[in-house]
Amino acid sequence: MFIGHYGVAFALNRASPQTSLGLLFLATTIADVLLYVLYLFGVERVVIAPATTASVPISFQHIPFSHGLAATLLLGAATFAVVLLWSRAERRVRLAAAGALAFGVVSHWLLDLLVHAPDMPLLFESGGYGLRLYDHPLLTHAVEIGLLFGGLAVYLRSLGLRGPRGLAGPIGLGALLVVLQLVLRRGAIPVSLEAVAIQSVAGLFAIAGMAAVVDGRARRSQVPTPESLGAAGADATEGPERL
Ligand SMILES: [Zn+2]
User: Fold this and answer.
1) Residue 147 sits in which domain range?
2) Residue 210 is assigned to a structural domain of this protein
3) What gap in Å lies between CA 132 and CA 106, rounded to an integer?
4) CA 138 – ligand 1 centroid, Å
Protein backbone atom coordinates (compact mmCIF):
# COMPACT_ATOMS: atom_id res chain seq x y z
CA MET A 1 0.00 0.00 0.00
CA PHE A 2 1.15 3.55 -0.61
CA ILE A 3 -0.99 6.62 0.09
CA GLY A 4 -3.50 4.68 2.20
CA HIS A 5 -0.86 4.67 4.95
CA TYR A 6 -0.97 8.47 4.97
CA GLY A 7 -4.72 8.37 5.62
CA VAL A 8 -3.93 6.56 8.89
CA ALA A 9 -1.25 9.16 9.68
CA PHE A 10 -3.70 12.06 9.13
CA ALA A 11 -6.29 10.38 11.37
CA LEU A 12 -3.73 9.62 14.11
CA ASN A 13 -2.90 13.33 14.29
CA ARG A 14 -6.34 13.83 15.82
CA ALA A 15 -5.47 11.40 18.64
CA SER A 16 -2.11 13.08 19.20
CA PRO A 17 -2.26 16.66 17.87
CA GLN A 18 1.09 17.52 19.43
CA THR A 19 2.83 14.97 17.23
CA SER A 20 4.03 16.45 13.96
CA LEU A 21 2.21 15.08 10.95
CA GLY A 22 5.66 14.52 9.41
CA LEU A 23 6.61 12.06 12.16
CA LEU A 24 3.29 10.25 11.75
CA PHE A 25 3.87 10.05 7.97
CA LEU A 26 7.29 8.53 8.66
CA ALA A 27 5.95 6.08 11.27
CA THR A 28 3.28 4.70 8.94
CA THR A 29 5.80 4.14 6.13
CA ILE A 30 8.95 3.25 8.08
CA ALA A 31 8.49 -0.40 7.02
CA ASP A 32 8.99 0.60 3.38
CA VAL A 33 12.05 2.70 4.23
CA LEU A 34 13.45 -0.36 6.04
CA LEU A 35 12.52 -2.62 3.13
CA TYR A 36 14.50 -0.66 0.58
CA VAL A 37 17.47 0.03 2.88
CA LEU A 38 17.69 -3.67 3.81
CA TYR A 39 17.37 -4.59 0.14
CA LEU A 40 20.24 -2.25 -0.77
CA PHE A 41 22.37 -3.87 1.96
CA GLY A 42 21.47 -7.37 0.74
CA VAL A 43 19.57 -8.35 3.89
CA GLU A 44 16.10 -8.64 2.31
CA ARG A 45 15.46 -10.11 -1.14
CA VAL A 46 13.30 -8.34 -3.72
CA VAL A 47 13.28 -8.97 -7.50
CA ILE A 48 11.52 -7.51 -10.54
CA ALA A 49 8.79 -9.99 -11.50
CA PRO A 50 6.00 -8.61 -13.74
CA ALA A 51 3.61 -11.49 -13.04
CA THR A 52 3.57 -10.94 -9.27
CA THR A 53 0.54 -8.60 -9.15
CA ALA A 54 -1.11 -6.26 -11.66
CA SER A 55 -0.19 -3.11 -9.71
CA VAL A 56 3.35 -3.83 -8.45
CA PRO A 57 5.62 -5.91 -10.71
CA ILE A 58 7.98 -6.73 -7.85
CA SER A 59 8.30 -10.01 -5.99
CA PHE A 60 9.05 -9.54 -2.30
CA GLN A 61 10.79 -12.87 -1.74
CA HIS A 62 12.30 -12.42 1.70
CA ILE A 63 11.12 -9.42 3.75
CA PRO A 64 10.82 -10.68 7.35
CA PHE A 65 12.50 -7.72 9.05
CA SER A 66 10.65 -4.91 7.31
CA HIS A 67 7.30 -6.63 6.67
CA GLY A 68 7.10 -9.55 9.10
CA LEU A 69 4.43 -9.33 11.80
CA ALA A 70 6.83 -10.20 14.63
CA ALA A 71 9.41 -7.62 13.53
CA THR A 72 6.66 -5.01 13.04
CA LEU A 73 5.30 -5.58 16.55
CA LEU A 74 8.82 -5.33 17.98
CA LEU A 75 9.42 -2.08 16.08
CA GLY A 76 6.08 -0.73 17.28
CA ALA A 77 6.97 -1.59 20.90
CA ALA A 78 10.43 -0.02 20.49
CA THR A 79 8.85 3.12 19.02
CA PHE A 80 6.46 3.35 21.98
CA ALA A 81 9.31 2.96 24.50
CA VAL A 82 11.68 5.40 22.79
CA VAL A 83 9.09 8.17 22.47
CA LEU A 84 7.98 7.66 26.06
CA LEU A 85 11.56 7.88 27.35
CA TRP A 86 12.88 10.49 24.93
CA SER A 87 10.13 13.08 24.98
CA ARG A 88 10.12 15.71 27.69
CA ALA A 89 6.46 16.60 27.19
CA GLU A 90 4.00 16.00 30.00
CA ARG A 91 2.97 12.38 30.58
CA ARG A 92 -0.43 12.62 28.85
CA VAL A 93 1.13 14.13 25.71
CA ARG A 94 3.97 11.59 25.74
CA LEU A 95 1.57 8.65 26.05
CA ALA A 96 -0.61 9.93 23.21
CA ALA A 97 2.41 10.50 20.97
CA ALA A 98 3.98 7.13 21.79
CA GLY A 99 0.67 5.36 21.21
CA ALA A 100 -0.05 7.17 17.92
CA LEU A 101 3.45 6.59 16.51
CA ALA A 102 3.52 2.92 17.59
CA PHE A 103 0.06 2.33 16.14
CA GLY A 104 1.20 4.02 12.94
CA VAL A 105 4.15 1.61 12.67
CA VAL A 106 1.98 -1.47 13.25
CA SER A 107 -0.85 -0.27 10.98
CA HIS A 108 1.53 -0.61 8.01
CA TRP A 109 1.50 -4.41 8.27
CA LEU A 110 -2.29 -4.60 8.50
CA LEU A 111 -2.87 -2.40 5.44
CA ASP A 112 -0.13 -4.10 3.43
CA LEU A 113 -1.72 -7.47 4.26
CA LEU A 114 -4.74 -6.35 2.26
CA VAL A 115 -2.83 -5.56 -0.95
CA HIS A 116 0.31 -7.74 -1.06
CA ALA A 117 0.74 -11.12 -2.70
CA PRO A 118 1.22 -13.81 0.00
CA ASP A 119 4.72 -12.65 0.92
CA MET A 120 4.38 -11.14 4.40
CA PRO A 121 5.53 -13.57 7.12
CA LEU A 122 4.32 -13.84 10.69
CA LEU A 123 7.81 -14.55 12.02
CA PHE A 124 11.13 -14.43 10.15
CA GLU A 125 10.58 -16.89 7.33
CA SER A 126 10.18 -16.23 3.58
CA GLY A 127 6.69 -16.04 2.10
CA GLY A 128 3.56 -15.63 4.20
CA TYR A 129 0.27 -13.83 3.87
CA GLY A 130 -1.34 -11.29 1.56
CA LEU A 131 -4.84 -10.83 0.16
CA ARG A 132 -3.70 -9.66 -3.29
CA LEU A 133 -5.77 -6.51 -3.72
CA TYR A 134 -2.90 -5.37 -5.98
CA ASP A 135 -4.36 -7.73 -8.61
CA HIS A 136 -7.25 -5.25 -8.95
CA PRO A 137 -5.66 -1.87 -9.81
CA LEU A 138 -8.87 0.18 -9.87
CA LEU A 139 -10.03 -1.23 -6.55
CA THR A 140 -6.55 -0.65 -5.11
CA HIS A 141 -6.65 3.01 -6.19
CA ALA A 142 -10.17 3.40 -4.77
CA VAL A 143 -9.23 1.90 -1.38
CA GLU A 144 -5.99 3.91 -1.11
CA ILE A 145 -7.59 7.21 -2.13
CA GLY A 146 -10.58 6.50 0.13
CA LEU A 147 -8.30 5.86 3.11
CA LEU A 148 -6.26 8.99 2.37
CA PHE A 149 -9.21 11.34 2.11
CA GLY A 150 -11.01 9.69 5.03
CA GLY A 151 -7.99 10.42 7.22
CA LEU A 152 -7.57 13.89 5.71
CA ALA A 153 -11.20 14.73 6.56
CA VAL A 154 -10.63 13.68 10.20
CA TYR A 155 -7.48 15.86 10.29
CA LEU A 156 -9.17 18.93 8.78
CA ARG A 157 -12.16 18.62 11.10
CA SER A 158 -10.03 18.17 14.21
CA LEU A 159 -8.08 21.33 13.40
CA GLY A 160 -11.18 23.31 12.48
CA LEU A 161 -9.46 24.45 9.28
CA ARG A 162 -11.54 26.51 6.92
CA GLY A 163 -11.02 28.99 4.12
CA PRO A 164 -8.55 28.76 1.26
CA ARG A 165 -5.57 29.70 3.44
CA GLY A 166 -6.12 26.92 5.95
CA LEU A 167 -7.25 24.24 3.53
CA ALA A 168 -4.84 24.81 0.63
CA GLY A 169 -1.81 23.07 2.15
CA PRO A 170 -3.43 19.83 3.39
CA ILE A 171 -5.66 19.46 0.33
CA GLY A 172 -2.75 20.27 -2.00
CA LEU A 173 -0.69 17.58 -0.26
CA GLY A 174 -3.59 15.14 -0.62
CA ALA A 175 -3.89 15.92 -4.34
CA LEU A 176 -0.13 15.47 -4.86
CA LEU A 177 -0.30 12.07 -3.14
CA VAL A 178 -3.17 10.98 -5.40
CA VAL A 179 -1.11 11.92 -8.47
CA LEU A 180 1.86 9.95 -7.11
CA GLN A 181 -0.41 6.98 -6.42
CA LEU A 182 -1.76 6.97 -9.98
CA VAL A 183 1.69 7.38 -11.54
CA LEU A 184 3.70 5.02 -9.33
CA ARG A 185 1.11 2.26 -8.94
CA ARG A 186 0.26 1.80 -12.61
CA GLY A 187 2.18 -1.47 -12.87
CA ALA A 188 5.10 -0.12 -14.95
CA ILE A 189 8.09 -2.44 -14.93
CA PRO A 190 11.16 -0.70 -13.45
CA VAL A 191 14.53 -0.84 -15.19
CA SER A 192 16.58 -0.89 -12.01
CA LEU A 193 15.44 -2.01 -8.57
CA GLU A 194 18.37 -0.21 -6.97
CA ALA A 195 17.11 3.05 -8.49
CA VAL A 196 13.59 2.28 -7.26
CA ALA A 197 14.94 1.63 -3.76
CA ILE A 198 16.97 4.84 -3.57
CA GLN A 199 14.17 6.95 -5.06
CA SER A 200 11.62 5.37 -2.72
CA VAL A 201 13.62 6.08 0.44
CA ALA A 202 14.29 9.67 -0.67
CA GLY A 203 10.66 10.08 -1.71
CA LEU A 204 9.24 8.77 1.56
CA PHE A 205 11.42 11.20 3.55
CA ALA A 206 10.53 14.07 1.19
CA ILE A 207 6.80 13.39 1.59
CA ALA A 208 7.16 13.25 5.39
CA GLY A 209 9.04 16.56 5.27
CA MET A 210 6.28 18.12 3.19
CA ALA A 211 3.69 16.86 5.67
CA ALA A 212 5.62 18.45 8.55
CA VAL A 213 5.71 21.81 6.74
CA VAL A 214 2.04 21.65 5.72
CA ASP A 215 1.03 20.70 9.27
CA GLY A 216 2.99 23.56 10.81
CA ARG A 217 1.50 26.10 8.40
CA ALA A 218 -2.02 24.74 8.84
CA ARG A 219 -1.78 25.05 12.60
CA ARG A 220 -0.57 28.64 12.35
CA SER A 221 -3.62 29.50 10.25
CA GLN A 222 -5.93 27.54 12.55
CA VAL A 223 -9.17 29.23 13.59
CA PRO A 224 -10.14 27.98 17.06
CA THR A 225 -13.59 26.41 17.07
CA PRO A 226 -15.47 24.58 19.83
CA GLU A 227 -14.77 21.34 17.96
CA SER A 228 -11.05 21.96 17.52
CA LEU A 229 -10.76 23.02 21.15
CA GLY A 230 -12.68 19.99 22.30
CA ALA A 231 -11.44 17.22 20.03
CA ALA A 232 -7.87 18.19 19.35
CA GLY A 233 -7.33 20.01 22.60
CA ALA A 234 -6.82 23.70 23.21
CA ASP A 235 -3.08 23.09 23.01
CA ALA A 236 -3.20 21.68 19.49
CA THR A 237 -1.33 24.65 18.14
CA GLU A 238 2.43 24.64 17.98
CA GLY A 239 4.15 24.99 21.28
CA PRO A 240 7.21 23.85 23.13
CA GLU A 241 5.67 20.44 23.78
CA ARG A 242 5.15 19.50 20.15
CA LEU A 243 7.01 16.43 18.93
ZN1 LIG B 1 4.99 -1.86 2.85
Assistant:
1) 3-222
2) yes
3) 19
4) 19
Domain count within the chain: 1
CA 230 / ligand 1 centre spacing (Å): 34
Q: Domain for residue 204, yes or no?
A: yes
Structure confidence by residue, pLDDT tens digits, 176-230: 999 999 999 888 899 999 999 999 999 999 999 999 999 999 888 776 655 555 4
Query: How much is the pLDDT for 221?
Result: 79
Taking a C-beta distance cutoff of 8 angstroms, is the pair 31, 105 a contact?
Answer: yes
Å from CA of 195 to ligand 1 middle: 17
DSSP letter assigned to residue 188 = P
| CA-derived radius of gyration, the chain | 18
DSSP sequence for 85-154: HH--S-HHHHHHHHHHHHHHHHHHHHHHHHHS-S-B-SSSSS--B---GGG-HHHHHHHHHHHHHHHHHH
DSSP letter string, 51-93: TS-SS--EEEEE-HHHH-HHHHHHHHHHHHHHHHHH--S-HHH
How much distance in Å is there from the Cα of 216 to the middle of ligand 1?
27
Summarize the confidence of residues 16-24 as an average pLDDT: 96
In a domain, 231, yes or no: no
Tell me: pLDDT of 85 over 60.
yes
Give residue 238's pLDDT: 44
Residues around ion ligand 1, judged by CB within 5 A, are: 31-32, 112
Separation of CA 145 and ligand 1 centre (Å): 16
**pLDDT tens profile 102-133:** 999 999 999 999 999 999 999 999 989 999 99
